[in-house]
Write a structure and sequence with these properties.
This protein has about 350 residues and is of the alpha/beta class. The chain has a single domain (about 80-345), classed as Alpha/Beta hydrolase fold, catalytic domain (Rossmann fold), CATH 3.40.50. Helices cover about 35% and strands about 15% of the residues. The protein has helices spanning about 35-45, 50-60, 75-80, 130-140, 160-175, 195-205, 230-235, 245-255, 290-300, 325-345; strands spanning about 5, 85-90, 100-105, 110-115, 145-150, 180-190, 215-220, 280-285, 305-310. The chain has a nine-stranded mixed β-sheet, with helices on both faces. Helix 4 (about 130-140) crosses helix 10 (about 325-345) and helix 5 crosses helix 6 (about 195-205). The longest helix has 18 residues, at about 325-345. The relative contact order is 0.12. This is Alpha/beta hydrolase. GO terms for molecular function: hydrolase activity. It comes from Methylocystis rosea. Keywords: Hydrolase. It holds the Pfam family Abhydrolase_3.
């Protein structure tokens, strides 16, 4: 059972706070090269190259050191959608409790449930970063959104993050009523790397006979052979929101073996898509991943899946994140609002 309002679980107990994953670099005293590593640790810090790369990525992503004038920022989710209540869930799993934020619109239930997976290249991000997206979806579609905080790579490579999402999906199926939800009406949604995880859930959930009515995928990566797509070759070298350098690093952090690139749980576009739930894709023509998304839509269509693909002209990766800046943001959320009612009818 999910523990509403996080009773009994300290922040350090949650799986996304664990730092003991298989991807953590460890140096042992009985290693013949230990003297070399000890000297190296005096010359550079962190000593491991992956840690050296991750530290600035995570600090810059959080905006550490920036002097931000609040007057220059758009209004926050709580200001825009005060009617949406936000509570914390501690969802049990084999790895420990998983911290989720539950965004619930007003009114009596049971309401449909959406599992939302945030982005961040598998290496950064948290549910609070996407509060505007999840609050708006909850408010405009009368749906309870459960936003999961999964374990990051490289400390926790594939399939740890997907395992966490699956644990939350199982909880929604079994105990979603605890949050006021209707477990017979579950959809999945995610952005960017979270879109990848969300896209994999119907394939993995199929093995456990978990019913997912629909998938809403915002600028996802669905095939880790992304260099094969013309839009990536054209746009990624000098991309702003994402680029070739970051995508290569994110892939290496998440997938540690070449064979995993073709695993359908990592590259859902390469899986058996027969019986996949109806899908809405949101993309932008300035996103290096737009051709990945187009190809996924074509594969789904070939498998007999009902697909809607909204493409924002000249829009970059993640263009839907901020309110009041781009008209295409409103158009994308309107596409979601048109898509969900029919999808939730099953």
């Amino acid at each position: 059972m999910g523990d509403i309002e996080n009773r009994g679980a300290a922040p350090s107990d949650f799986v996304d706070a664990r730092a003991d994953g298989p991807g953590v670099v460890r140096i042992f005293e009985d290693d013949p090269a230990a003297p070399f590593y000890r000297l190296l640790s005096k010359l550079r810090a962190p000593v491991a190259m992956r840690d050296m790369m991750m530290a600035p990525v995570r600090a810059c992503y959080r905006g550490e050191g920036l002097a931000i004038d609040p007057a220059e920022l758009p209004p926050g989710a709580a200001q825009l959608y005060p009617q949406v209540s936000v509570s914390t869930l501690a969802v049990p799993s084999d790895a420990g409790p998983i911290r989720c934020e539950c965004y619930a619109p007003p009114g009596d239930g049971p309401k449909p449930l959406m599992l939302y997976v945030h982005g961040g290249g598998f290496v950064v991000g948290r549910s609070e970063d996407t509060a505007y997206v999840t609050s708006r979806i909850a408010a405009e579609n009368d749906i309870i959104v459960v936003s999961v905080n999964y374990r990051w790579a490289p400390e926790w490579p594939f399939p740890a993050g997907l395992d966490d999402c699956m644990a939350v999906l199982r909880w929604m199926r079994d105990r979603g009523a605890d949050a006021g939800g209707d477990a017979s009406r579950i959809v999945v949604c995610g952005d960017s790397a979270g879109g990848n995880l969300a896209a994999a859930l119907p394939l993995r959930g199929r093995e456990e006979r978990i019913s997912i009515l629909a998938a809403v995928l915002l600028c996802p990566v669905t095939d880790f052979h992304f260099e094969e797509f013309p839009s990536f070759e054209r746009l990624a070298p000098t991309g702003v929101v994402i680029d070739a350098s970051f995508m290569g690093f994110a892939r290496g952090a998440y997938l540690t073996k070449l064979e995993q690139w073709r695993n359908p749980w990592a590259s859902p576009a390469l899986g058996d898509l027969n019986g996949y739930p109806r899908t809405l894709l949101i993309s932008g023509t300035a996103d290096p991943l737009v051709d990945d998304n187009r190809a996924f839509a074509e594969r789904l269509t070939a498998a007999g899946v009902a697909v809607t693909h909204f493409i924002g002209e000249a829009m970059p990766h993640g263009f839907y994140f901020f309110p009041g800046l781009l008209k295409e943001t409103d158009a994308a959320f309107a596409a979601i609002a048109r898509f969900l009612p029919a999808a939730l009818q099953g």
